[in-house]
From TrEMBL:
Matches recorded under SUPFAM superfamilies: ATPase domain of HSP90 chaperone/DNA topoisomerase II/histidine kinase, Homodimeric domain of signal transducing histidine kinase
This protein's name: histidine kinase
E.C. numbers: 2.7.13.3
Organism lineage: Bacteria, Pseudomonadati, Bacteroidota, Chitinophagia, Chitinophagales
GO MF term set: kinase activity
Domain Histidine kinase per the UniProt entry, residue ranges: 221-440
Entries under PROSITE patterns matching the protein: HIS_KIN
Organism, as annotated: Sediminibacterium roseum
Keyword Translocase carried by entry: no
């Protein structure tokens, strides 16, 4: 089981790691592809708008040899005497902005920020949007797209107005990331789901392993608990068959009582298992009625007199609660107190002393049961109310049971809308504090 579990964890971990690496590689390629696509789309928009501005102006055209130019285009000295109609004379700034926005949307660039300008080479822009100058010089975050407002062919440049259209893509990389945000979120969510599924799988495997161990322990405990009384009954029956024992009425009565006591013991074990089954199905039925807890505690403690004498222990009662009436199920609440006292006796050492005290607050009754027994570790305190869990008893090997008692206690407390708190120090003892609501007439 350990090797299988380890193999499953390793294989799932490698698969998860490989999937994450593939997603990272895929996303890098997607990011680069999207960046190229955005760049081409912006460039296409700039060319289209520039041509549209030129064609709408219907400018005078002359042909000149192509020359190297400045960042804004052709050398202006080649056509310094030409004075065609400028873009500013034909269009308003709002019209140019709307034209750019229209073509951006056609090229799948909706809701992007941009600034623009129309400028002559080596001169101040004749038309510029409000934040163009700030955007133009911020080349770290923004991307420039400069296109002459004239048609271009392979050999010549047809010159209308010596102007350039400059479009600034604001926060270019942020626009790319924004366009990919749902893909990133989806991939991230998908990865988180896979990781969560991995942990749930591992947790389920661990839980299954733990349940398997608990099942084995439970079967071993149950076998032992039933084997002992059955063996005792078998010996008592064999003794009763003996003629000498049959002739002695006192011995016959003794062995008959043994059979009866062991039968009662077995019935208690069966009842405990049935109670556990009821708790699993959440079918714990309560017959609530007003009960004086002080009387219930006193009666319960009296049943342990013989066991205390055998242990050389004592129970000290400090029932100081001013109000002690609660609405409770008498049978289940008696079993609750009985289980706590029984545990204190089971996990005891020499000179056992159990103190049961009560006090009442405005709305609740507080019952405290403390002992000077072997105590529990922090791990046992955390798990004490788990079904089938049994605290380690060190050198004590005579502690019997199925590990269902404390789970039953917690279920009964919850059913009565109460709380239970455990405090324990290993080697010094334990204390259980129960807090349950008082009956309404006492509040």
């Amino acid at each position: 089981m350990k090797r299988t579990f380890l193999a499953i964890v390793i294989l799932i971990s490698l698969s998860l790691f490989g999937l994450i690496l593939l997603q990272v590689s895929w996303f890098k390629n997607l990011l680069e592809t999207t960046r190229t696509q955005y760049y081409n789309n912006y460039n296409q928009v700039a060319v289209t708008v520039a041509n549209e501005l030129y064609n709408t102006n219907n400018k005078q055209i002359i042909r000149l040899p192509k020359r190297s130019g400045t960042i804004f285009g052709t050398d202006p000295h080649l056509y310094h005497n030409i004075k065609p109609i400028t873009v500013e004379q034909k269009f308003t700034q709002q019209e140019v902005s709307e034209m750019i926005r229209k073509h951006l949307e056609r090229n799948h660039l909706k809701h992007v920020d941009f600034e623009f300008a129309i400028a002559e080479p080596n001169d101040e822009p004749e038309m510029a949007s409000k934040n163009f100058y700030d955007a133009y010089w911020d080349t770290i975050n923004n991307k420039r797209f400069i296109v002459p407002v004239i048609p271009i062919n392979n050999n010549d440049i047809e010159i209308g107005a010596a102007e350039n259209l400059v479009i600034m893509a604001i926060a270019f990389d942020q626009q790319i990331w924004k366009s990919l945000r749902w893909i990133v979120l989806g991939a991230g969510l998908f990865t988180i789901v896979i990781i969560a599924a991995f942990f749930v799988t591992v947790k389920s495997l661990l839980k299954q392993k733990k349940l398997s161990e608990i099942k084995s322990d439970f079967i071993n405990n149950m076998t032992h608990e039933f084997k002992t009384p059955l063996a005792t009954i078998s010996l008592a029956v064999d003794a009763l068959r003996n003629e000498k024992v049959q002739a002695d009425r006192e011995k016959s009565r003794y062995f008959s009582n043994i059979i009866k006591e062991e039968n009662i013991r077995m019935n208690k074990h069966v009842e405990t298992i049935l109670q556990a089954a009821l708790m699993d199905r959440q079918e714990l039925q309560l017959n609530l009625k007003p009960i004086h807890i002080h009387e219930l505690i006193t009666d319960t403690v009296d049943t342990y007199e013989l066991q205390l004498q055998e242990k050389g222990g004592e129970i000290q009662l400090m029932l100081n609660a001013k109000h002690d009436v609660i609405n409770a199920d008498e049978v289940h609440f008696t079993n609750l107190i009985s289980n706590l006292v029984d545990n204190a006796i089971k996990y005891s050492k020499d000179k056992l002393k159990i103190i049961i005290s009560t006090h009442s607050t405005k709305n609740n009754l507080v019952i405290r049961i403390e002992d000077n027994g072997i105590g529990m570790s922090k791990e046992s305190v955390k798990r004490i109310f788990e079904k089938f869990y049994r605290a380690h008893t060190g050198n004590l090997h005579n502690v019997k049971g199925f590990g269902l008692g404390m789970s039953y206690v917690k279920t009964v407390i919850d059913a009565h809308k109460g709380k239970i708190k455990v405090e324990s120090v290993l080697g010094k003892g334990s204390s259980f504090t129960i807090d349950v609501p008082l009956a309404e007439q006492q509040i």
